[in-house]
Every structure is written in C-alpha cells, then in structure tokens.
User: What shape does this take?
Amino acid sequence: MFNVHGSPYQTVGVPDLLVGFRGRFFAMEVKRPGNQLSPAQVKAIEAIRASGSVAGRVESIEEAVALLDV
Assistant: This one.
C-alpha cells in the first residue's frame, strides 16, 4: 500500500491510497462524510477504472474493505 501525501509538486487528482491486493490494483480517495470529489479526482478515478483496475471514494474503513472485496 502507498499513501499519497499531497504537495504542490504532486499530480492533481491522484487518489490518497494506492493498494496492490491479491494481484490487483486499487485506488481509494478518502473523504470525510459529505465531502465531494473534485473534478480532477473524478477524472483520475474514471481513468483508473477504464484501465481495468478498481477505484472509488471511501469514507470509512468498512467502505475501503468493501472496495477490496471485488
């Protein structure tokens, strides 16, 4: 697992958690309840999904585990 820490030098929209699990790539954008994805985050998640990987927005550990349970 790789945790992305935002900085001015980072590519905009890269999800917070990049995870290799059971031979697959997962990307998770962690948000507080009610917070929305930015347009750059939506675009990044769509591109990751288009590549055949799993990506999504999560608000809790339970949602992250559910995303991994594909």
In short: Residues 35 and 59 are 9 Å apart (CA to CA).
